[in-house]
What we know:
The complex is a heterotrimer of chains A (about 325), B (about 280) and C (about 270).
Chain A: E1 3-12, E2 15-25, E3 30-34, H1 41-49, E4 56-61, E5 64-65, E6 76-79, H2 91-100, H3 110-123, H4 139-152, E7 157-161, H5 169-186, E8 189-194, H6 197-203, E9 206-211, E10 214-219, H7 221-226, H8 231-236, E11 241-246, E12 249-253, E13 258-261, E14 268-276, E15 281-287, E16 293-299, H9 300-306, E17 313-318, E18 322-324
Parallel strand pairs in A: 3-8, 3-9, 6-7, 7-8
Antiparallel strand pairs in A: 1-2, 1-4, 4-5, 9-10, 11-12, 12-18, 13-17, 14-15, 14-17, 15-16
Chain B: H1 15-45, H2 48-57, H3 59-92, H4 98-110, H5 113-124, H6 131-136, H7 145-156, H8 159-171, H9 174-181, H10 186-215, H11 218-224, H12 234-243, H13 247-281
Helix pairs in contact in B: 1-13, 2-13, 3-7, 3-8, 3-10, 3-12, 5-7, 5-11, 7-10, 7-11, 8-10, 9-10, 10-13, 12-13
Chain C: H1 9-37, H2 42-48, H3 50-83, H4 89-96, H5 98-101, H6 104-114, H7 133-158, H8 161-169, H9 174-203, H10 206-212, H11 222-231, H12 235-269
Helix pairs in contact in C: 1-12, 2-12, 3-7, 3-9, 6-7, 6-10, 7-9, 7-10, 8-9, 9-12, 11-12
Amino acid sequence: xxxxxxxxxxxxxxxxxxxxxxxxxxxxxxxxxxxxxxxxxxxxxxxxxxxxxxxxxxxxxxxxxxxxxxxxxxxxxxxxxxxxxxxxxxxxxxxxxxxxxxxxxxxxxxxxxxxxxxxxxxxxxxxxxxxxxxxxxxxxxxxxxxxxxxxxxxxxxxxxxxxxxxxxxxxxxxxxxxxxxxxxxxxxxxxxxxxxxxxxxxxxxxxxxxxxxxxxxxxxxxxxxxxxxxxxxxxxxxxxxxxxxxxxxxxxxxxxxxxxxxxxxxxxxxxxxxxxxxxxxxxxxxxxxxxxxxxxxxxxxxxxxxxxxxxxxxxxxxxxxxxxxxxxxx
Amino acid sequence: xxxxxxxxxxxxxxxxxxxxxxxxxxxxxxxxxxxxxxxxxxxxxxxxxxxxxxxxxxxxxxxxxxxxxxxxxxxxxxxxxxxxxxxxxxxxxxxxxxxxxxxxxxxxxxxxxxxxxxxxxxxxxxxxxxxxxxxxxxxxxxxxxxxxxxxxxxxxxxxxxxxxxxxxxxxxxxxxxxxxxxxxxxxxxxxxxxxxxxxxxxxxxxxxxxxxxxxxxxxxxxxxxxxxxxxxxxxxxxxxxxxxxxxxxxxxxxxxxxxxxxxxxxxxxxxxxxxxxxxxxx
Amino acid sequence: xxxxxxxxxxxxxxxxxxxxxxxxxxxxxxxxxxxxxxxxxxxxxxxxxxxxxxxxxxxxxxxxxxxxxxxxxxxxxxxxxxxxxxxxxxxxxxxxxxxxxxxxxxxxxxxxxxxxxxxxxxxxxxxxxxxxxxxxxxxxxxxxxxxxxxxxxxxxxxxxxxxxxxxxxxxxxxxxxxxxxxxxxxxxxxxxxxxxxxxxxxxxxxxxxxxxxxxxxxxxxxxxxxxxxxxxxxxxxxxxxxxxxxxxxxxxxxxxxxxxxxxxxxxxxx
Lengths: 330, 282, 270
């Protein structure tokens, strides 16, 4: 189901949380809201769910205004960072909850509920855990149960608020891929809130980068990385070197878009302060005479060709420069 | 932030219900809790300032105040020393019968004060275990001041220990071990590391203990013998004057205890506020 | 916790052992031994006395009524204090502790005057409260109200709001969320507060003597009867009653411990 966010504004205690935010979420897409903490992404998600009311603006679901509707009637599945499982209910009871609280006329029969829960437990690969209490599960298992619980009511939209934020790096990576596969199968319109750019880039079709109550850029992950619209996006998504002020803004270059040379004619002088060559790329930190620091990534063959070492004097030159207006501080 | 945020419709109770419940609660608390307090001061002064002051300067009232202060002081000291030792022992060490010991600390709270008083009568009274022996040595405990002090100490005995035990457990042995590795002697470690970390809990426990000790009635009543000017604490003095229909005098003495209660409430709020601030800044 | 003996272990063990033995266990032993050594049949005689029976039953009934009163009002107060911000909330929160801080004799004194026939509240009521069973329940409710509020409040404060939001998003009405998600998680705290209230009320003496009028067969409670028997030098009778009271206290205490052990774990993890 498509969602249209139109001109949402929200203020709280004199602080602007959302500042005229608009966003289109097409049917069946997986959109990531990416931004630092306090950028307003969680509030936006909660407004879409109806858990919070905006001061201005509206949320349209399939072209229909929902801002006045109660969260109970919005058919959203919401997954919280800290799972929010009901601790006194077993895994089965948690998953079945949304079906069992339906009004009597719409409530499926007991057998249908049982079959639906079985199906979902299978989907999250936890068939044998039905009778366990949430306290007897690991963090990753709890979050899978929370997802199954949200999916049980067949929501038209799935909203995920930092769903993997409380998990270990490894579990996180697994769940991320699992979520992507789940979305490919179910095609439920999904909005994922995260502060982890890697997570957003890997999972989402579309990334919306938020900063200070506004959306700075919306686009395909690759476009966001290659063509950041603002200085904030450039620095928040991936590593970026800020080079110098030019007319109309600031010049930026990605670390892998820089090259080093031993020939003074090839660029500005710099000194290597740190060289780490583990993995396919060598990461170097350089000091410019101005005191500015640069990060440069070279391929292994290039590094071997140049025979570089820490403390050495080199000459640095960007291969590709982007000039972006404005200067935001992260 | 969550405090300022009013939940959206459907997530919380409807506004009219919230308002109604709040209003009902406030009215209930005003009538059920606040009004009795106001009534004490109003009744005490209803016969005028002169009666009020005279009631407090009465010889028996003064003696009762002195005895109450004395037994409170003893109770606080006993509870404090025991509390520090017991909390540290039970919070740091896994000794045999640990759970039972902690449960025993609950006993004086669970036992009816009257039963507590009775136990001391059975122990030290003339018909009791030590009574005849004490009598031969010319000492009287029951129906005398020592009995009142003992009974008060019993009902307040575990207060400090109960406050400190969770704090000691939460504190963990790391800072004490660090101090000792830095060369501090056990005594220095206690004074400079353990005690400062427990100070707010200790103060909180002492306030609870003192406020309960000042007001203890049932246990003291049983062992007192109600001898005017001798074995009457302030609460017993209030009962005696009340039974003689000297309501003005009874309420005048009650204001003293009420003021003490208010001060202890204020101190408690202050101490828990400071403790929370210290914890948050740590 | 470790097994290593820290410096000061001997001293603190000594103080703890001495304190526990002299101040808690020795008086208890005096009561227990006196009960064991009582003449055969004393208990039966004491318990078959109708005055004793009436007092014991009334004590239990009044304490139960007070605990029920607190169940309703204490739960409401805790809920409003935690969930509904209103001006003066801090003051109201401090006021909850008043019955703890106010000596029971003072509580009894002011309640008997306030609800007496000439009191601010008493003269408005069509039925007598003081020197009546209602007055006893009132006094017991007053002194034990904080137990209910204070055992519920911290649990309510720590209850994550997300759980209710999750239930709401799943389509549960507010009422269903309260009944199926919130209430089951508060239940252990409610039960524990109820039991603590009851335990405090059943042993209460100071405030009751002021409001009850101490009428045998009517407003006489068990602790008062112990005092009466002591004044008549009926030690066996007093001990028998005390043992019953002690048994009730211990039972309630054990129940609360079980409750915490049973539910303490599950709550901590999620």
